[in-house]
Structure formats: C-alpha cells, structure tokens
Specification:
Number of strands: 2
Radius of gyration: 10 Å
Helix content: 55-70%
Number of helices: 3
Strand content: 5-15%
Shape: globular
Largest sheet: 2 strands, antiparallel
Strand order of the largest sheet: 1-2
C-alpha cells in the first residue's frame, strides 16, 4: 500500500524511481496503483513529474 500523506508519498515514489523502476508508469503498474491518481494528488500538494522524479513546483 502506498502512503496517503503527500510528503510521504513523494518520498516513496522518488525512492522507487531512483532505486528500482525505469519510469513512473512502470512503477505504478508494478506496485498496483493508478498513476494519474497519484500524479493528481502530488500536483495538488505542489509537486510535478519531470520525467525522472517528482519535484516541488515553483
């Protein structure tokens, strides 16, 4: 199960992207979560996906 808290979620996703997965879509498929739902949740918390990780929007 993935974290519900946005700050924990971004850490969880970025760690997976750094250590285990080639891209976010592969991670979502392997971990069994909806990529669009997670992207929307992180976007609402001020993060955007830059193709390799989620970063804080400016």
């Amino acid at each position: 199960m993935i974290p519900k808290d946005p700050n924990m979620l971004v850490s969880y996703v970025n760690l997976g992207l750094r250590d285990k997965y080639e891209n976010f879509e592969d991670m979502a498929s392997s971990e069994g979560f909806d990529a669009d739902e997670v992207k929307d949740k992180l976007k609402a918390a001020g993060y955007e996906y830059n193709g390799g990780s989620f970063i804080k929007s400016v």
